[in-house]
Amino acid sequence: MPFVALAGLRPRSAAAAPLLDAASAEAKAVNYGEDAATASGATAGSRCANCALYQGPEGSTEGPCQIFPGKAVKAAGWCSSWAPQM
């Protein structure tokens, strides 16, 4: 059987991105909160999980965000950069 390289796949042992600290300056700059229900400025129904910038898999509790390279955010979170998925 020939060997086929799969580009873009990370080994299972690769560490997950660290969770963004909601108290950090970068989080505060966009009013990020780990719970959209209590985040200042969040509109009903908006949360990281349904944002166009969120890159976590569907059903995950956290995942990467384009706003915070190298960091994960809570799927239930929200920030002022929230944009609807198209």
Q: List the helices and strands in order.
A: HEE
The total of beta strands comes to 2
Mean of residue pLDDT? 87
Helix content: under 10%
User: What overall form do the CA principal axes indicate?
Assistant: globular
Strand content: 5-15%
pLDDT below 50 for ≥5 consecutive residues: which ranges?
5-14
Outline the biggest β-sheet: 2 strands, antiparallel
Rg over CA atoms: 15 Å
- Number of contiguous helices: 1
In terms of structural class, how would the helical and strand content be classed?
mainly beta
Quick overview of this protein structure:
The chain has one helix at 25-28; strands at 62-65, 68-74. It is mainly β. Residues 5-14 have low confidence and may be disordered.
Question: What does this entry look like structurally?
Answer:
This protein is mainly β. It is 5% helix and 13% strand. The chain is built from one helix and two strands; from the N terminus they run αββ. It has one helix spanning 25-28; strands at residues 62-65, 68-74. Strands 1-2 form a two-stranded antiparallel ribbon. A hairpin with a 2-residue loop joins strand 1 (62-65) and strand 2 (68-74). The protein is globular. It starts with 24 loop residues before the first helix and ends in a 12-residue tail after the last strand.
